[in-house]
Design a protein that fits this description.
With 127 residues, this protein is mostly beta strands. The chain has one domain: 7 Propeller (Methylamine Dehydrogenase, Chain H), CATH 2.130.10.10. Helices cover 0% and strands 48% of the residues. The N and C termini lie far apart (59 Å). InterPro entries: Topless_fam, WD40/YVTN_repeat-like_dom_sf, WD40_repeat_dom_sf, WD40_rpt. It comes from Dioscorea cayennensis subsp. rotundata.
Length: 127
């Protein structure tokens, strides 16, 4: 028996909505509230098995979460952001094992399976 695989395209809007689309021009299939309800970026792990969302709320609070894309809920929230941010936090995954996010001229690192921050880089001076 063949396994049916349905692939969605996700979009995030500035109003804090995550939408999932199919390739049929009918419209979005789901409409979820994104963490922080504002500016976010979504990214799958390199093997495509895990979906992460990172961003900044309207109040400037940064967040990094693993998203359950089938149920539209947060699976885990990573801790370690300290300050208010004036822009969207940038992040990336590596080797299906680590997360890295930039905040306040530093790069912060997490193990994908542990919500506590592993380490932080020294402050980077921008000239």
């Amino acid at each position: 028996m063949a396994k049916l695989v349905v692939q969605f395209v996700y979009s995030l809007a500035i109003d804090g909505k995550i939408k999932a689309w199919l390739y049929d021009n009918i419209g979005s299939r789901v409409d979820y509230d994104a963490p922080g309800n504002w500016c976010s970026t979504m990214l799958y792990s390199s093997d495509g098995s895990r979906l992460f969302c990172c961003g900044t709320s309207r109040e400037g609070d940064s967040f990094l979460v693993e998203w359950n894309d089938l149920e539209g809920v947060i699976k885990r929230t990573y801790v370690g952001f300290q300050k208010k941010s004036i822009g969207v936090v940038q992040f990336d995954t590596t080797q299906n094992h680590f997360l890295a996010a930039g905040e306040e001229n530093q790069i912060k690192f997490w193990d994908m399976d542990n919500v506590n921050m592993l380490t932080v880089s020294p402050t980077i001076e921008i000239q």
